[in-house]
What we know:
Blueprint: E1 2-5, H1 10-13, H2 62-76, H3 80-85, H4 90-103, E2 110-113, E3 117-118, E4 124-134, E5 138-152, E6 155-158, E7 173-180, E8 187-188, H5 203-209, E9 220-227, E10 233-240, E11 252-253, H6 258-271, E12 277-283, E13 289-295, H7 302-305, H8 315-324, E14 339-341, E15 345-347, H9 359-364, H10 368-373, H11 382-391, H12 414-421, H13 431-443, H14 468-484, E16 497-504, E17 513-520, E18 523-529, H15 535-549
Parallel strand pairs: 8-11
Antiparallel strand pairs: 1-7, 2-4, 3-4, 4-5, 5-6, 7-9, 9-10, 12-13, 12-18, 14-15, 16-17, 17-18
Amino acid sequence: MDNRDSYLPDSVHRAPAGQAARRRRGGVRAVTAVAVVLAVGAGGAYAAGVGPFAGGDDGPDPAALEQARAFLADWAGGRLPSAAARTTDPGTAQEVLGNFTGGLDIAEPRLVAGEPASAEDGSVTVPFTARMPVTGLGTWTYRSKLPLREAGEGRWKVDWRLSLVHPRLSGTEKFRLEREERDVPEVTDRDGVTLPVGELPSLAPVLGQLTGGGTGSGPRGAVQLVDRVTGEVERTEVRFGGTEGPRDDEPVRTTLDADWQSAAERALAHETEGKNAALVALRIDDGEILAVANSPASGFNRAVSGTYAPGSTWKIVTSTALLLKDAVALDDVVDCPKYLTVGKQFHNVETSEFPGATFRKDFTESCNTAFIGLRDELGDGELGEVAGEYFGVGREWHVGIPSYDGSVPAARDETEKAASMIGQGRLQANPLIMASVTATAVSGRFHQPTITPGGAGGAAVPTTPLPDRVVAQLRELMRATVTEGTARGLADLPGEVGAKTGTAEVSEEQDNNGWLVAYRGNVAVACVVEEGVTGGGSAGPVVHSLLKAVPE
């Protein structure tokens, strides 16, 4: 057994507890858009001054919520000195946060703030959900609260105490990680070929999550609450892995393809310039996963469990919602100005503009302002309804390994609605979700993604097929994005390749995440590169390398 503690210093042990509705075949107005992320996700995502608490005199001071979100973003992003500086006890806070995540092998926490509440004494409490990926084991999810108090001149500080890290962390109790080492079973691909796990490093965290057909294979462990003095276990907070040992006579069977997996890992290794990145490739006709790869390969499975704003790749879903109700046609004029103000100023990447552009041009050049200009054509919750009903996003998926299945909450104000049109605001997805979205868009039917042959079990995800006319339009738009738009970097590949690029804003302190989704033949691919700046420039080379390496 390998035991690891979330150690704390002795001093801490003693501490007390536009007018798009006027659609015309020659002139729909447009809008803008680099958006914002209100949730704190992989890599840390934060934006101030947006959402239901941006402005207005009722409710908690927006500055308190802003400070809480900034603290969570810094903690999630590993910027511990910055996070600690936002508290009333920076020295202790930095040491505790570092020991907590380091001692428990937590890689890239995902922290999502909830609704703030004011107390009679003027303090503010912001609840949050913590998803803590324990390296090689799984994700520990719990809820806690951030207390904040005013520090003068309109400034707020997180009122430091151990219990904000976890409600049970105290001066007398701490957490300990226990691992049980187990033999790595044989893993086979879809054709029964043994996968060389040592040569495919991204499979390590995936293997740890696979059910292996109920054999209980993979690593096991637990996070336990123990007495600081005696070490006595007081309770088990979370347990990872099955209760049975691996059976040597039964390999772990997967839907993976050895060629696709190998090509995906090489693409991430050679084309990401050392940045965090993730990729998923799956079959369009049945949802079976051919490759899932992460960079770095060890630790958190970003490809399947990450929570990212999908950026302009989400315009596939937005376009679907608009086309379903005939709110726009491909040849309608939807102007693309540099800027548009909807509570905040939105703009296009590099402040580009396309006066008199058609909707087709807006899609292929990924014009944010044009899409935001069409926001009045959709109800506040309509994007989420379309995402769930047709694409299965936000429903309970049964992939065969733990997955995050997306979130598309209804817009709470006009600014958030504008941001949602271009895949920002509180929208969250990952490469698995966006590969599935792409597959659904070009085939018309959602297929439950799975990494285990025959499906992962559980109830089928209820969805509605897309009309053929909408599928034809989506394919036309994605193909044109390759032949004449922002995904021109894929134009030299053989076969009919369609794609959509995406650039997702994270925070003022971080470069944008780069996205690209694509399809060719019976395969859909999605890739995200953290701080990749643009989708075409960062995720584009990764997808190009992958598709070039594997025959059509």
